[in-house]
Automatic annotation (TrEMBL):
The lineage of its organism: Bacteria, Bacillati, Actinomycetota, Actinomycetes, Pseudonocardiales. Residues 11-110 form the SnoaL-like domain. This is Nuclear transport factor 2 family protein. It comes from Amycolatopsis silviterrae. Coiled coil: none annotated. It comes from the Bacteria. InterPro entries: NTF2-like_dom_sf, SnoaL-like.
Length: 128
């Protein structure tokens, strides 16, 4: 079982790579046969290639990601993350709770993001 430190370090690295918006580097944190369900209840993406394709949707976005809290126990972490994307017209913010499991090497074996469209806050940039 991975140590709590290894898990919390992996979560922090995930947040850094998410902020950098590099799909291949994000997918590299996952085990080959890992799964992503984002949001929970949506189609499950399985395997590193499908996961990289999912994160490819971040390409070209002005995005920030801030890790707010992390809790780790056993092979599992739950964490609260703030993700803000900015376009010419809108600033959108969401704060999902993600749950990840990890293998012995600290690679992500599963990720479920708990959020719904009602949790996304959109503001016009002119309203700032």
């Amino acid at each position: 079982m991975p140590t709590t430190d290894k898990i919390t370090d992996a979560v922090a690295e995930y947040a850094r790579r998410l902020k950098a918006g590099d799909p291949a580097r994000i997918a590299a944190l996952y085990a080959e046969d890992a799964t992503v369900e984002d949001p929970a209840g949506s189609a499950v993406r399985k395997g590193r290639e499908a996961i990289a394709a999912f994160y490819a949707e971040l390409d070209g976005l002005a995005l920030t990601a801030e890790l707010l809290t992390v809790r780790a126990s056993g092979d599992t972490a739950a964490f609260h993350l703030r993700v803000v994307t900015t376009t010419d017209e809108f600033v959108s913010s969401i704060e999902p709770i993600d749950v990840m499991t990890f293998d012995e090497q600290g690679r992500i074996t599963s990720m479920r993001a708990i959020w719904s469209p009602a949790d996304v806050v959109h503001r016009r940039r002119s309203d700032q």
